[in-house]
Amino acid sequence: MIYKEVRVKYLVLNIKYMQIKILVSLLLSFSLTGCVFDENKRIEQSLEKSVIEFHRKLNDERFKEVYEQADEKLKSQIPEDIFVAQLRQIRTQFYPLPDKAYVFVDDEIVDGLKRTIGFKRENFSTFQLIGNEKEVTTEMFEWTVKGNEAKLLSYKIDPVCKKPCGIAIKK
Q1: Chain centre to alpha carbon of residue 38
Q2: Residues 52-89 pLDDT 10s
Q3: Considering the domain 2-162 in this protein, what is its CATH number?
Q4: Distances (CA, A) of 140 to 2, 79, 104, 169
Q5: Could you tell me which of 3, 154, 164 has the C-alpha nearest to residue 83?
Q6: pLDDT tens, position by position, 37-49
Q7: pTM, whole model, 2 decimals?
C-alpha cells in the first residue's frame, strides 16, 4: 500500500515537472522568436542605410570611397581601377540613382534563432529594380553585416527589359 502511494506521488510529481518543463520551453521559444524579429529589423535597417549611402556615393562620383569601404573579400576579387570603372559606367547609365531602398531579410525562424543565440549569419543579399528612360535593371548587392555596420561583398546589375516593357506575373 505504501509502495502504491509513493509511486502515485512520484508520478504526480513527474507530470508536474514535465508540465513546468514544457511551459518554460514555450516561454523561452516565444521570447527568442521576438528577438529574431528585432534582429531582422536591425539588419534590414542597416542594409537600407548602406544601399542608400552606396547610391549617394555613386551619384556624387565617390567611387574610390565605395571601394575603400568594401569588404576585403571584394577587394581581393577585383582591382580598384576595374571596380571604379564599372561604377562610373553604372552611374552614367542610371544617374540619378534612387535615394530609397527596400530591404527585407527573409530568414527562416530556425536561422534567426541561431543568429539570436550566437551562431551569426553574416552575409545577406538584397536586390531592387532601377531604371532610366531606356531600360529597367535589377541591382544586386551582397553585404556582410557585423553589428550595425554593413560592408559590400559584391555588386552587379542585370538587365530586365528595354522600355517600354511589361513584367507579367503568372498565377
Answers
A1: 13
A2: 999 999 999 999 999 999 999 999 999 999 999 999 99
A3: 3.10.450
A4: 73, 19, 13, 20
A5: 154
A6: 677 788 888 899 9
A7: 0.70
Q: Which H or E run includes 20? A: helix 2-59
Closest by CA to 132, choosing from 86, 91, 95, is 95
The order of strands in the sheet holding 149-162 is 123-131, 135-146, 149-162
Domain-wise residue ranges, the chain: 2-162
* Number of C-beta neighbours around residue 139 at 10 A: 22
Cell of 53: 549611402
Give CA–CA dist 135/90, Å, rounded: 13
Q: For helices 2-59 and 109-116, what crossing angle results, to 10°?
A: 90
